[in-house]
Each structure stands twice: as C-alpha cells, then as structure tokens.
C-alpha cells in the first residue's frame, strides 16, 4: 500500500530549514536561469508550487513588481509564513485540490515537488489548467535512479549504493516514480506543450560539495525510512554520511532535469 505523506513531514524544524536553505544555495542559480528564459517581467502573475524556504518567491516578487503577483502554494508554509510582501500571497494547501482561477498565470514554477506526489498527473493537470494560453511552465525534478558511488573505499561505496537502493525502495513503496525527472520532456510533449529547453545535470561530485551536503542532510532525516525498507542498515547510513563529507570520494548524485515549456492552446489534460 502506497503512502502519501510528504517524506520530510516528520523532520525537526531546524534540520528541515537548514536542508531547504542548502538546497536553495545549490539549485537557485539554475532555477533562476530557467525562469528568466521565459521572459518574466513586471506585471506577470506567477505561481510557485512547493515554496520551500521562499528564496524563489522573493526573487520573482522583485521582478514582477507591484503590478504583478506571486502566489505560493505549499502543504507546509511554516518557513514562508513571515514573508510580508504586498505582491505575494501564501496558500497552505495541496496543489491537487486548491481552487485556482483557470487560465490566470503567466508562469508556473515547481522544483522537486512532483517527485513526492504518487498521482502527480493530478497536480500537473491542475497547474496546466491555471496557466494562461501561451503561458510558461518550468518544472525541475530529480532522477533518483541515476545515483551511484563512483570512487572511494570499496566497502564504503557498497554501503552508499545500498542506501541508494533503499531510497528507490522507499519511493516505490509510496507508489512514486523515482525516475520522474528523466521522463518530464516526454510527458510535456505528450501534453502538447511547446518545449523551450531541457537541461539534465548529472552532478559527478566530490564529497563536501553542495549537492553532497544536501543528500547527506536528506539521508540523515530519512534514515529510519531507508532502514525500514530492509535495503540498508544504520551502519550503511553512517558510511553514506562519511562518504558525502570525504573530499576524496566521488559519486553521481541524483541529477535534476529542468524543462521549460509553453502552452500553445488552452491547458491540456494530463492522462
């Protein structure tokens, strides 16, 4: 039986805000590049799905100005509730069910959101339905299946790969497609969206890098869930964390696929 609860929902506040802020440090530059390519400008109405710690919200609010609007939808708004900007509205809601005005947004952005939703098609349909004809959508999702240890102590690498397998099993148990990121372009194409750009970073990275730090934080917070799959032990988790800190160790961490697309007609229905 699949689980639908957000995998980081039980994390301690201090751990989760640190993870989200580190994630922003690692990924915001690429996200901004993709969003800027849409031509975002003053007066645009934007939707941010899964706002995290709020860095992209604040940045978009600056660009769209007082005549524009940024609406943020998130299941957990504790990290963005203190954003007091006149052109920002925060909604604590599930994107699959929140009532949004149809064909009302110039731009929709989501990063590492759909990967956590078993029936992501419902969320994507909702997003597309609220997008203006000719509007833009930028979605960034990981391909968790690509993660693997590349260089380091052989026994430690085996532990790292067992943790990677535990991660895949955890997502599978929840009915989630852990390789969603790499399928995004085909999904968008099937929906009749006009693909502007596709980026697929495969971060071959050494321990101590930003992405290694993010993945270590995630692994610490999800350790019990990983061990519960039977694919990894707490000792494997410890070895994974040491590997992620070791500057002489190298791994491919889950790459993020970034797709920027545009509607050419009224929003499609996601099947």
Task: Characterize the structure shown.
The chain is an alpha/beta fold and 271 residues long. The protein has a single domain (13-262), classed as Vaccinia Virus protein VP39 (Rossmann fold, 3-Layer(aba) Sandwich). It has 8 helices and 10 strands. A 7-stranded mixed sheet has the order 3-2-1-4-5-10-7, sandwiched between helices. Strand 4 (105-111), helix 3 and strand 5 form a beta-alpha-beta unit. The longest helix has 24 residues, at 13-36.
Task: Please name the defining characteristics of this protein.
10 strands, disordered C terminus, 271 residues, Rossmann fold, 3-stranded antiparallel sheet, globular, alpha/beta
Low-pLDDT residue spans: 266-271
Biggest β-sheet description: 7 strands, mixed
Total helical segments: 8
Structural class: alpha/beta
Rg result: 19 Å
Overall geometric form: globular
Instruction: Write the CATH architecture name.
Output: 3-Layer(aba) Sandwich
The spatial strand order of the largest sheet comes to 3-2-1-4-5-10-7
State the CATH class.
Alpha Beta
Task: Please identify which CATH superfamily we are dealing with.
Answer: Vaccinia Virus protein VP39
Number of strands: 10
SSE order: HEHEEEHEEHHEEHHHEE
Number of spatially distinct domains: 1
Helix content: 25-40%
CATH topology: Rossmann fold
Whole-number average pLDDT? 93
């Amino acid at each position: 039986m699949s689980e639908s609860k957000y995998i980081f929902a039980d994390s301690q506040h201090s751990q989760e805000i640190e993870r989200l802020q580190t994630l922003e440090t690692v990924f915001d530059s690429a996200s901004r590049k993709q969003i800027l390519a849409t031509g975002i400008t003053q007066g645009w109405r934007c939707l941010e799905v899964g706002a995290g710690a709020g860095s992209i919200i604040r940045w978009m609010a600056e660009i769209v100005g007082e005549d524009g609007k940024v609406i943020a939808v998130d299941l957990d708004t504790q990290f963005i509730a203190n954003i007091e900007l006149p052109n920002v509205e925060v909604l604590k809601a599930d994107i699959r069910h929140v009532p949004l005005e149809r064909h009302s947004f110039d731009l929709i952005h989501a990063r590492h959101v759909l990967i956590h939703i078993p029936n992501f098609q419902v969320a994507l349909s909702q997003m597309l339905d609220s997008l203006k004809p000719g509007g833009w959508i930028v979605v960034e999702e990981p391909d968790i299946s690509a993660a693997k240890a590349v260089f380091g102590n052989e026994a430690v690498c085996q532990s790292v790969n067992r943790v990677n397998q535990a991660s895949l099993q955890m997502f599978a148990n929840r009915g989630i497609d852990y390789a969603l990121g790499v399928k995004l372009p085909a999904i968008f194409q099937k929906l009749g969206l006009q693909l502007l750009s596709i980026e697929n970073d495969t971060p071959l990275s050494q321990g101590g890098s930003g992405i290694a730090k993010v993945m270590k934080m995630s692994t610490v917070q999800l350790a019990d869930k990983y061990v519960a799959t039977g694919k990894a032990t707490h000792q494997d988790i410890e070895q994974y964390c040491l590997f992620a800190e070791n500057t002489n160790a190298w791994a491919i961490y889950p790459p993020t696929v970034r797709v920027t697309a545009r509607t050419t007609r009224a929003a499609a229905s996601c099947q």
